[in-house]
Amino acid sequence: MTLPAAPDSTPALRAATDLWKPVLVRAGVALVFGAVTVFWAAPSEAGMGWAGGLYLLATGVILIWTVTKSGYRPQERAGRILSAGAAALAGAGAAVALIPSPLVFGAIAAVGLGVAGAAELFAGILARGRSVLARDWIASGVIGLGTAVALPFFIGLGPHALLGVAGGGAIISGVLWMLSGLTLRHDARGDSARP
After folding, report:
1. How far does Cα 68 stand from its chain's mean position?
2. How confident is the model at residue 191 (pLDDT cuts 50, 70, 90)?
3. Which is nearest to 1 in space by CA: 70, 65, 63?
4. From CA 22, how far away is CA 59, in angstroms rounded?
C-alpha cells in the first residue's frame, strides 16, 4: 500500500494510516471465534447461539467502524453498501444469540453472512483503486458468501457442525484480515517515519 504524497488526495487513502486498528480487531475476533469452534467439543444449542451470535454482532459493528475509518462518507455508494451489510450481519448476530436453535443459526446466520459477503464483494469491486481494503473486501466477501451457502446444509448435523462451518470461514477470513492489518500497520509506521 502506498499512500499519496499530496495531503488532499483521496480521503479513503488518507485515512488508511489509522485503518489498521479496526482491521486487526476484526481479525482477532474472527480468530478467537474460530479457535472456540475448533476446541469446543460438544457445544449446546444455547452455547452455539451465544458464540455465533456474538461473533456475527461483533463483526458487524467492527465492519461499521472500518467503514468510518476508511474515509467513506455515509452518502458514498460503497460506504452505504458496507454499512447495510454490516447492519444485516449485526442483526443476524442478535437474532442467533436470542433464538438459539440449529435451524435459526443455519438460516439466519447464512442470510447475515450472505448479505454482508455480497456487500463486501460489491463494495470491494466499486472501491478498486480508491481504497487500500478493496482486494481484502473482495476476498472476505467471497469467504462470507461461501460460508453462507454451506451453512444450511449442516443444520441437521447440530451445533458442533454449524459452529465448525462458521468457524472455518472465520479462521480463513481472520488470517486474511490479520495479514491486511499487519501490512497496513507496517505501511502506516513507515509513512510516519518519512519527513
Report:
1. 14
2. low
3. 70
4. 10
C-alpha cell at 121: 464483494
Q: What is the pLDDT of residues 8-64, one digit of tens each?
A: 444 444 455 678 888 899 999 999 999 999 998 889 999 999 999 999 999 999 998
> What pLDDT score was predicted for residue 126?
87
- Are the C-beta atoms of 20 and 181 separated by less than 8 Å? yes
Determine if residue 128 is left, alpha or beta; phi over 0 gives left, psi from -120 to 50 gives alpha, anything else beta: beta
**Within a 10 A sphere around the Cβ of 159, how many other Cβ atoms?**
24
Rounded Cα gap, residues 60 and 39, in angstroms? 24
Non-local CB neighbours of 24 within 8 Å, separated by 6+ positions: 177, 178, 181, 182, 185
Report residue 46 as a C-alpha cell: 444455547
As given in the structure block, the three cell numbers for residue 35 are 479457535
At residue 73, the pLDDT reads: 60
- Provide DSSP, 57-118: HHHHHHHHHHHHHTT--TTSHHHHHHHHHHHHHHHHHHHHHHS--HHHIIIIIHHHHHHHHH
> Which residue type occupies 38?
V
Query: Distance between CA atoms of 10 and 138, rounded to whole angstroms?
Result: 20
Give residue 128's pLDDT.
84
Answer whether residue 102 shows pLDDT above 70: yes
Q: Cell numbers for 91, please give them.
A: 442483526
Provide the grid cell at 124.
470491494
